[in-house]
Amino acid sequence: MNAISELDLQLPPFDARGVGRRFRHDALFGALDTLQPGEGMRFINDHDPLPLLAQLRERYGEQLAVDYVQRQPGEVVIDFTVLRAAVHGEGSECCGGCS
């Protein structure tokens, strides 16, 4: 088995093409919020989601890696990997450790 096939097996797909446009961002945030450091997912979309990527940078900062696998009109594939747990004060979301 080649390296690409092994990676495909490790990353669960999130195919945004099957999610209503108005729900896509929130659905992806919810899916990413469930991942632990070292885990990831493969995002598949019908266009390059530049506004979404800006929101992800704002929300997750340096704790999320974003790697394009395919960037063609009609099909964009991006691998997201959680690099580390949230640190209080990073991004716009509370890490849950506030009292």
UniProtKB/TrEMBL annotation:
Positions of the DUF2249 domain: 14-81
Stated name of the protein: DUF2249 domain-containing protein
